[in-house]
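Postdoc handover notes: sequence design on the structure in folder B. Input tokens:
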């Protein structure tokens, strides 16, 4: 039995080595020319049907500017409703690793259906200015973006939001502000945007029963980026577009064995122990909540200064809500949905 096991193990190792060598060989090949050609064809189609305005720096009330890419139908005789996606993630129009445009199919679909499409990075990420905090606070940033979009001559003054996870979770807090341009929302997997609702004090899934849920520690390692490269404030739009084909400003954090790293004590030093960057997890930060999330209690006043939605707020616009039974926060999600229905 033991010898048979060893023979099987040896065979498995040989197969693994062979497959790994094949994978390395594949990785050494250049980018897929068919995929590159397809992406360029999609980009051409987009430019054929849309006005494309990239790296637009949209001003906020405190003077900071958020980077947006704007796409709208070419017929200038009409005004259009806007699909708005605001995200902390990389939406750079150029895939710098592939050396070709990213896939714009969903934007083309929106344009063909008579919508303008605006995608914007949250404060403190990629080409957007300011200091990062979870959910892109202050919520006035979302308010200012909505007001700016609705004031454009090509806009019909109606904006709907769409997104999943971090691209959804800010929507409720901004919707509660009551901006007249905010007409509908599609929030998918929105649990980390739920603060205090009913019996739940999870504060964006940060807690479960008063204890910190550690999954977000690993996530913040790659998201908090107090130290980051930035283009000078006076960089022209044309140069930002050229520059974004060379640098997408995406953080490439070293890999970490979190099965071991999350065992470090004290908990507040987990990211520091893997030589991660300073940021909102453990450090005081110059943003609206002050950072230092790990030092807070479940009802700390800082949780009510950021982008979370709480049950002292109301949402009075229609929404299409998506959630999963196997999400980390189905209880608070359902409580939020029912709260919004009742109020």
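Designed sequence:
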């Amino acid at each position: 039995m033991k010898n048979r096991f060893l023979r099987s193990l040896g065979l498995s190792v040989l197969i693994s080595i062979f497959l790994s060598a094949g994978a390395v060989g594949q990785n050494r090949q250049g980018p897929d020319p068919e995929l590159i050609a397809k992406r360029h064809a999609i980009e051409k189609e987009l430019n054929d049907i849309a006005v494309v305005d990239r790296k637009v720096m949209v001003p906020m009330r405190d003077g900071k500017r958020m980077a947006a890419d704007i796409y709208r139908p070419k017929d200038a005789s009409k005004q259009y409703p806007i699909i708005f996606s605001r995200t902390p993630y990389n939406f750079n129009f150029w895939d710098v690793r592939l050396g070709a445009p990213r896939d714009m199919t969903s934007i083309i679909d929106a344009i063909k259906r008579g919508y303008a499409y605006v995608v914007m990075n949250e404060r403190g990420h990629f080409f957007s200015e300011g200091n990062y905090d979870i959910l892109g606070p202050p919520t006035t940033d979302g308010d200012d973006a909505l007001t700016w979009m609705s004031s454009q001559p090509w806009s019909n003054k109606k904006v709907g939001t769409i997104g999943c996870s971090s691209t959804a979770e800010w929507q409720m807090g901004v919707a509660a502000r009551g901006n007249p341009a905010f007409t509908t929302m599609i929030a998918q997997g929105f649990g980390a945007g739920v603060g205090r609702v009913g019996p739940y004090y999870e504060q964006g899934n940060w807690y479960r029963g008063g204890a910190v849920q550690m999954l977000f520690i690993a996530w913040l390692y790659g998201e908090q980026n107090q130290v980051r490269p930035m283009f000078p404030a006076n960089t022209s739009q044309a140069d930002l577009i050229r520059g974004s084909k060379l640098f997408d400003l995406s953080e490439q954090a070293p890999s970490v064995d979190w099965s071991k790293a999350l065992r470090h004590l004290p908990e507040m030093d987990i990211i520091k122990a893997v030589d991660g960057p300073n940021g909102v997890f453990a450090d005081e930060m110059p943003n609206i909540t002050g950072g230092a999330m790990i030092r807070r209690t479940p009802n700390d006043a800082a949780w009510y200064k950021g982008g979370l939605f709480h049950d002292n707020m109301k949402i009075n616009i229609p929404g299409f809500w998506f959630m999963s039974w196997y999400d980390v926060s189905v209880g608070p999600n359902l409580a939020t949905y029912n709260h919004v229905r009742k109020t």
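Context for whoever picks this up: Residues 1-27 have pLDDT under 50 and may be disordered. Don't rerun without checking with the PI first.
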